[in-house]
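Supplementary Methods, section 5.1.

A reviewer requested that the exact input to the structure prediction be made available. We therefore reproduce it here, unchanged from the version used in the analyses.
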Amino acid sequence: MKLIQISDTHFGTEQPPVVEALLELVTEAAPDLVVMSGDITQRARRDEFDRARAFVDRLPVQRVMVIPGNHDIPLYNLPARLFAPYGGFSRVFGEELEPSHDTDDALIITVRTTRRYRHVDGEVSRAQIEAVAARLRKARDSQLRIVVTHQPVCVQRPQDEVDLLHGHKAAIAGWSAAGADIIMGGHIHLPYVCPLHETNVRLPRKIWAVQAGTATSWRVRNEVGNSINIVHYDSGGVCSVERWDFRPAESRFRQAVRHELHLDESRIYKSIHE
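The structure derived from this sequence is encoded token-by-token as follows.
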């Protein structure tokens, strides 16, 4: 199974050469699916959603999963924010705000962490945590189990702690106990992989946070340029995450970093020995 994670495209601030290079990369990589983990637009404007939809339509994959980020809710149009916060998103991507993917190789569950009453921050409710955990507990042994949020559940710098998902500690504990392998996120435009089982010592099993940078926007942070993630997995339990960075001098994406994720052995024991 091969998955490409694209996050924080921020259409309205996208760079056309980067967009074209990303489409070329997806064509060459030929993933099974693409996950877009929020902040698809810059200001949730109609033309920005139309450009985002046109981009998705050009992706040469059978399945694209898209979730809204905080930028995909109107900021200045207060009536729309209060009474139809996801109207623009739903017009181009459909009414499903928490799509899922269930195949022999992978179970991918997305979670709507945006709220109309929060400007930037994200939140996960107890009901959402329990609903995701219930689905994880029904996963098959051969499946890589991924939960996708927009805001991060792990940060690497103290100044980014304000961006942590509200409810992240309960979510990590509940989803880890239910069998999750990876929690994907975006939002802060910084790509990294975090071993949550090392930073949360009481977790019952191994679980990883995989953060994506900004894919196409000029709104980069701390000199970290445009990037996306490619996740590889086979049913024997081998999983890796590659970060691909855009190289302006070449006008293309190149692999920058590769992480080998050591999954919890209890999850793959049966599939290896059956």
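DSSP finds eight helices and twelve strands in the chain. These observations are discussed further in the main text.
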